[in-house]
Write a structure and sequence with these properties.
By secondary structure, this protein is α+β, with helices and mostly antiparallel strands. It has 17 helices and 24 strands. The structure holds adenosine monophosphate (AMP).
């Protein structure tokens, strides 16, 4: 969701939707959100329904800071949605925490959203012209109000209205007093997985890693433009408007999603190992040890080591109790963050020619600091190998990647960047190297931050005239019907 910062939408989020008739839905949602903590660390929230009434709680902080026994016991019910959010700082942050709750004469619902709507302002304006009243400037409320307007025609039709008009990236979970809905945008930019809690309910979550802690079983990923609905008839899937191509975010595979999650039929751990293997083939070098930047560089460093036959060795320890340095909002704190987080293992590094494997360079601050850390600890050479292509274009679809002017690879050539970060040599994986590691054709991904080719057109000023209609199939086809009965 956007917060009026059109030049720099930054929304990294995790979403959950859950139905559990025999166990407390809010408590299970807490544990699923906890597993998705990496997708957003600044606010968390849960909305729950007992079949009559929707209640919610949200606040700034990590999931474990926002919820305790007392809060959870005030959230009774069988249906729930949850949300983790990375946000900008300041007064606007709590106002934009999710799930959002929306009430109107025709009903009430809560919505949790991962991604960014590009045409939210235009949609809101045209709905306001038709008399709609909005409580916030958030694009999630736009989704909520479209749904609420059309829910009387049934959930499939209501979601399809969103899919037809809302341009951008969105994986969404929705809660009404008696229904749970999950859906992905027509391009499927952000992930959303659906499964069961055994005989005991259903779960939808941004990533499959949320299923383990609540003993859930993944059925499958939702397809682009697809929805999953849980109501008194059980679980069913329906297909709404889809685009002419899937455009799943490649950066989810490279960095953002947890390595134990599976997407596009591979665990990200395995995909990242293969990225490391491809990197070793694309950028070989003579060196003594392969060192990962913990934790995100570990699988790729193992892959690099396997192909290059250079031994894998840990070169630094990461504090488990400091979350991402990226969270620090200003440059000074970010620089301090690296030193707070990583301690070099001097005896592994001293006198060594090192291949340093990391997932990505965004602003370049982190890599620069780590290279310095290694040289300060006695490294002889530091050959940086990155399992992403150079990030040269900003993301408008929900990954916080800085503005174009802040992106190191947008300002500098690889040679200049090598000099800037202070490495001996620098090599980036190609787009092909990354996509073949996932095992899908290039055409199945959003590669915008690497190539500048935005699958959902993004005009400079985010103005609606430059958008095209992405909807190619307006018909709804219900493809599967489940068994479980709610509220019988
Ligand atoms: P920097 O180049 O200093 O901006 O930091 C890049 C590092 O931050 C990468 O190696 C990742 O580990 C991490 N990173 C990259 N993108 C993101 C993101 N969108 N959110 C949080 N961390 C990120």
């Amino acid at each position: 969701m956007t917060q009026g910062d059109a030049d720099h939408p930054k929304e990294e989020c995790g979403v959950v939707g859950l139905y559990s008739p025999n166990r407390e839905a809010a408590r299970l949602t807490f544990f699923a959100l906890f597993a998705l903590q990496h997708r957003g660390q600044e606010s968390a929230g849960i909305a729950v329904s007992d079949g009559e009434k929707v209640r919610w709680h949200k606040n700034m902080g990590l999931v474990s800071q926002v919820f305790d026994e007392e809060v959870l016991s005030g959230l009774p019910g069988e249906l729930a949605i949850g949300h983790n959010r990375y946000s900008t700082t300041g007064a606007s942050a709590l106002r934009n925490a999710q799930p959002i709750f929306c009430q109107s004469v025709v009903g009430e619902l809560a919505v949790a959203h991962n991604g960014n709507l590009i045409n939210a302002v235009e949609l809101r304006r045209s709905m306001e012209n038709e008399g709609e009243k909005f409580d916030s400037t958030s694009d999630t409320e736009v989704i909520a109000r479209i749904l609420i307007r059309h829910l009387s025609k049934g959930p499939e039709a209501a979601v399809n209205e969103v899919l037809k008009v809302a341009k951008g990236a969105y994986s969404v979970t929705v809660l009404t007093p008696r229904m749970l809905i999950g859906f992905r945008d027509p391009f499927g930019v952000r992930p959303l997985v659906v499964g069961t809690l055994g005989e005991d309910g259903y779960l939808m979550a941004s990533e499959s890693c949320a299923f383990g802690p609540v003993a859930g079983q993944v059925l499958r990923e939702l397809e682009p433009g697809e929805m999953a609905i849980v109501d008194k008839n059980g679980l069913r899937f329906a297909k709404g408007s889809v685009s002419n191509r899937p455009a799943m975010c490649l950066f989810e595979f490279i960095y953002f999603a947890r390595p134990d999650s599976a997407m596009y039929d591979t665990t990200l751990y395995a995909a990242r190992e293969r990225m490391g293997e491809n990197l070793a083939k694309e950028h070989p070098i003579d060196a003594d040890i392969v060192v990962p930047v913990p934790d995100s560089g570990i699988p790729a460093a193992l892959g690099y080591s396997r192909v290059s036959k250079i031994p894998f060795r840990e070169g630094m320890m990461k504090s488990r109790y400091i979350h991402r340095t990226f969270i620090a909002p200003d440059q000074n704190m970010r620089e301090l963050g690296v030193r707070l987080k990583l301690t070099p293992l001097k005896e592994h590094i001293e006198g060594k020619r090192i291949v340093l494997v990391d997932d990505s360079i965004v602003r370049g601050t982190t890599t620069r600091q780590i290279v310095k850390l290694l040289f300060d600890s006695g490294a002889k050479e530091v050959h940086v190998r990155i399992t992403a292509p150079p990030i040269q274009f900003p993301c408008f679809y929900g990954i916080d990647m800085a503005t174009k002017s802040e992106l190191a690879a947008a300002r500098m050539s690889v040679q200049e960047l090598n000099k800037y970060i202070g490495s001996t040599t620098l090599g980036f994986l190609t787009i092909e190297g990354a996509t073949t590691a996932v095992g899908q054709p290039k055409s199945h991904f959003c590669l915008a931050c690497f190539s500048g080719d935005y699958p959902i057109p993004v005009p400079e000023n985010l103005n609606k005239d430059a958008f095209e209609d992405v909807s190619s199939a307006d018909e709804l086809v219900t493809v599967q019907q489940g068994q479980m009965t709610l509220f019988s």
